[in-house]
Design goal:
About 20% of the residues are buried. It contains no helices and eight strands. The chain is mostly beta strands. Strands 1, 2, 3 and 8 form a four-stranded antiparallel β-sheet that branches. A four-stranded antiparallel β-sheet has the order 4-5-6-7, with no helix packed on it. A hairpin with a 5-residue loop joins strand 4 and strand 5. The chain has one domain. The N and C termini lie close together (about 10 Å).
Length: about 70
């Protein structure tokens, strides 16, 4: 599972459709392109959504229909 600590110090897991995302998993973005998920960073401030790192670059979680979920 891809995990990170958010701005409040909470452990968060990157999720896609409610399921944890694992490093190396391939997800489809909103355009239909695929990318291998390599990691990410949970939100660093309350108004942030965090980032997802892929083999094609860094993106907001919503690009892949993901979100950071406190665990």
């Amino acid at each position: 599972m891809i995990q990170s600590t958010d701005h409040a110090g909470r452990a968060c897991t990157l999720t896609h459709n409610g399921q944890p995302v694992r490093a190396g998993e391939i997800l489809e973005d909103f355009r239909g392109d695929q990318a291998r998920i390599t990691g990410g960073q949970a939100p660093h401030k309350p108004s942030s959504t965090g980032k997802i790192y892929t083999d094609a670059g860094n993106y907001y979680p919503s690009v892949f229909n993901c979100k950071w979920t406190p665990t």
